[in-house]
């Protein structure tokens, strides 16, 4: 931990932590408002503001650069809103137009400054890619003030931003102006972009706004929790990026912060309990296993129903041929049903146990209920809805089942069951 003895490193650590936390909070609203590219556009648009501030003042002052970048960002945000509102150009096209034009102007101005013969222009290009190591105490104090303003404003307007993100029409009906709220959100994005330019640069600021929020979105469906988690992820990314940069010589801090946030996103993408890839794959496997298991019961039930004998015995090959399923899959599912006590096995012959017949009746009935619904509501033939019913039948609630029972009885598709066997009760 010797690197903490360096005062400059402590300033960088504090500044990047505050930048990550405020970016995570504001990025949550930007992400839900579908303004993911807004941060990128405003970050690139800030470059000409930095160049103009240098050309006017002739000094390399962070305060002047921030003012110039802030003005340029506000002008860019207003330009995006005006193009979207008063023309047929969609918002994504307006973002791309403003981003490219402002950044091109910034590069031209930067080139003019570098060829102007003025000796103190060195270092302006660091605002493109960032140079967190150049942060000093005064810079961090300015960043802290701006970060606090952004955080307090975002939390104070939490309810209004929440309405804007989820239902702008309802917000308008409640007396709020979506245009004003959008403009205020864009202004806060500009402020975050401005304070982050020196640390991570205009190129990577969009990642600082979006990546922590995108990672947090995978862990929760509640906005308040999402904002808190995004704030923590952003702060942790700032800390990790600074530590890695301090431990690895000549490694830039900004890109390492972004890579740290990306690592957290990948972890969330894979392992989040509800929306993670592994969790979704597990649910898919379980659903497919359940569908295959119940299809075996359904096939055997339909054979018994057609022959009029509930004691019918069939082979695994006959079940596989009926469902056009590989025999190895049928064998695996039959083994599971046998272990559950739903099928009886005698030599190579399979038959229902009493409980298995009850379960098969429930499966067939739910399947036919959903087929009846699809045929009557969507006017599709039964052979077109069979596979949809295979999956959706497993999610029928009691209320839906009750609504569809009448149609099933009217059209004579109610499955039969021996009088001595009572159907299983639906689980709630």
How would you describe the overall organization of this protein?
With 428 residues, this protein is mainly alpha-helical. The protein folds into 2 domains: 2-272, ABC transporter involved in vitamin B12 uptake, BtuC, CATH 1.10.3470; 280-410, Winged helix-like DNA-binding domain superfamily/Winged helix DNA-binding domain (Arc Repressor Mutant, subunit A). The protein contains 17 helices and 2 strands. Strands 1-2 form a two-stranded antiparallel sheet. Strand 1 (343-346) and strand 2 form a beta hairpin. It is elongated, with a radius of gyration of 31 Å. The model has no long low-confidence stretch (mean pLDDT 81).
Low-confidence stretches: none
What is the succession of H and E elements? HHHHHHHHHHHHHHEEHHH
Q: DSSP strand (E) fraction?
A: under 5%
CATH superfamily of the largest domain: ABC transporter involved in vitamin B12 uptake, BtuC
**Helix share bin:** over 70%
- The CATH class of the largest domain turns out to be Mainly Alpha
Radius of gyration: 31 Å
Give the number of DSSP strands: 2
* Tally of structural domains: 2
Mean pLDDT: 81
How are the strands ordered across the major sheet? 1-2
DSSP helical segment count: 17
Q: Can you tell me the CATH architecture of the largest domain?
A: Orthogonal Bundle
Within the CATH hierarchy, at the fold level, what is the topology of the largest domain? ABC transporter involved in vitamin B12 uptake, BtuC
């Amino acid at each position: 931990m010797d690197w903490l003895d360096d005062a400059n490193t402590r300033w960088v650590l504090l500044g990047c932590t505050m930048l990550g936390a405020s970016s995570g909070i504001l990025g949550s609203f930007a992400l839900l408002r579908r303004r993911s590219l807004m941060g990128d556009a405003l970050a690139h648009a800030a470059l000409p503001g930095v160049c103009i501030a240098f050309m006017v003042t002739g000094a390399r002052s962070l305060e002047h650069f921030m003012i110039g970048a802030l003005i340029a960002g506000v002008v860019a945000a207003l330009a995006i809103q005006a193009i979207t509102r008063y023309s047929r150009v969609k918002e994504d096209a307006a973002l791309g137009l403003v981003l490219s034009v402002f950044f091109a102007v910034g590069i031209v101005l930067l080139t003019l400054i570098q060829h102007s013969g003025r000796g103190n222009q060195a270092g302006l290009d660091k605002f493109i890619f960032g140079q967190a190591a150049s942060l000093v105490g005064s810079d961090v104090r300015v960043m802290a003030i701006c970060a606090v303003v952004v955080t307090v404003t975002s939390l104070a307007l939490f309810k209004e931003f929440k309405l804007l993100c989820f239902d702008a029409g309802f917000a308008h009906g409640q007396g709020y102006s979506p245009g004003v709220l959008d403009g205020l959100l864009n202004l806060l994005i500009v402020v975050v972009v401005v304070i982050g330019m020196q640390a991570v640069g205009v190129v990577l600021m969009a990642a600082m706004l979006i990546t922590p929020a995108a990672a947090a979105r995978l862990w929760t469906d509640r906005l308040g929790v999402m904002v808190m988690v995004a704030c923590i992820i952003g702060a942790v990314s700032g800390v990790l990026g600074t530590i890695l940069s301090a431990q690895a010589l000549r490694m830039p801090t900004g890109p390492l912060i972004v890579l740290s946030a990306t690592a957290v996103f990948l972890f969330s993408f894979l392992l989040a309990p509800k929306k993670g890839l592994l969790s979704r794959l597990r649910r898919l496997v379980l659903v497919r296993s359940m569908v295959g298991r119940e299809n075996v019961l359904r096939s055997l039930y339909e054979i018994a129903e057609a022959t009029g004998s509930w004691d019918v015995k069939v082979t695994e090959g006959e079940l596989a041929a009926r469902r056009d399923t590989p025999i190895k899959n049928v064998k695996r599912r039959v083994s599971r049903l046998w272990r559950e006590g739903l099928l009886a096995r005698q030599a190579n012959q399979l038959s229902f146990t009493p409980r298995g017949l009850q379960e098969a009746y429930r499966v067939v009935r739910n399947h036919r209920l959903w087929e009846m619904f699809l045929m009557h509501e969507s006017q599709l033939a039964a052979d077109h809805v069979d596979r949809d019913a295979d999956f959706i039948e497993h999610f029928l609630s009691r209320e839906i089942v009750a609504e569809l029972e009448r149609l099933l009885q009217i059209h004579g598709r109610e499955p039969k069951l021996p009088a001595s066997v009572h159907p299983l009760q639906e689980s709630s």
